[in-house]
């Protein structure tokens, strides 16, 4: 067995970050009153009883005054803290609702365009659900809006959302009516995307409006905090002059205020993290929309290629009837029949590729299994003529293993990988393909197809498994869905696929699929040894180093 050599390679938005108030919390040192008390004590001992009573009354007045001022300061600071809490609670909740509103709008549009691409009814339902969530959140905001300017902005959002929904509905109508992809694409490009942009602009305008109100409220809270801080400074100075005990009281008060300020900063930090996460989600959504746009462009190109290929295939067929009428001998008839047969075969290959892609992600029967050796032998025999035509040497090194996959789907996987390897060998100085298959230690069967072709450009490696993608500058027959079909089949069977390529030196595709034993499928009985009445074994595959096609210089 061979060791597994590589592992296969494989969300509300905020426009501006919350501003944390600048500066650190004020710290006040606790006044040390030991020397003051010593002086007072000595002074009192030298004064008469009346003076002592006066000093005592002064201390009492000072303490009472300090207590009153301290109480006023504490009340002011608590009011500031409560005011800041109310500001953050009110406007923070509005900003969160705005981000959820934007997320619902983007999700509705993204799921709707995804439905236009895939015709998946679940995506359509998700688009409708996102629209209901959007309307519910907008209704909440409208119900709370009292400012005419705020209500006007919310009504613009509602109008923009309605226009976007109507544009999307028109695209759905064209799609359901059987319109061509390019017709649907024109509706999306001309109506859906501009309406979505207008909706996003309206939401952004409302967000800026809420953000500006939040900044005004924060400025007021900061001014109140500044006034309260000045009051606290006065209290601290009075406490130093009046009594050390008042200093202790102020120290405790300031410690409490310091903890409250730290809690505010922690709250601001959490809000900052939440905004950063929302921004990351917005970027992910934008990347998803961009990927959908690329898929739409690839789909347009794919439709053009299919139309071109089918036209080229049907043209010879359309010429057959008049040629048959003019044919005057059997030899001419045979040539016409052979040409017709080739065109039909090529058309059938195109249709088979499309059918394989459509059913590749839905295994017919999870209890089926296939012999890797037998399937590779069938594909090798099927492609022997191709190997001979390109003068390629094909070497097969396969263990007798069974894969938890139907023979038909495994045939599609091997046929696409080996066919691609042969297809790109034409014109190469070295034309060699090596096919290996063995069982790994973790219960998978590893299939490797290595060729000496031109290799894959670095920028295209991440997209070769996308449907309808063709490497720029490479002209070869095919529909552009072969590798996408392979990946869908492998993924549907809990497998993995990886590609390693060096430009100008060749490419190696590796596929890992669960073996039948890993899935608990019963294996067929092993054939009895020769000479004991066992049926004859099938013809062996080429030995290591032997090829299907003779390599010619």
Summarize the structure.
With 553 residues, the chain is α+β, with helices and mostly antiparallel strands. Helix content is 64%, strand content 8%. The protein has helices spanning 34-46, 49-118, 121-144, 148-176, 181-242, 244-326, 330-359, 372-382, 384-389, 407-423, 482-492; strands at residues 370-371, 393-398, 402-403, 432-439, 444-451, 496-502, 506-514.
Spell out the blueprint of helices and strands:
Elements: H1 34-46, H2 49-118, H3 121-144, H4 148-176, H5 181-242, H6 244-326, H7 330-359, E1 370-371, H8 372-382, H9 384-389, E2 393-398, E3 402-403, H10 407-423, E4 432-439, E5 444-451, H11 482-492, E6 496-502, E7 506-514
Parallel strand pairs: 2-4
Antiparallel strand pairs: 1-3, 4-5, 5-7, 6-7
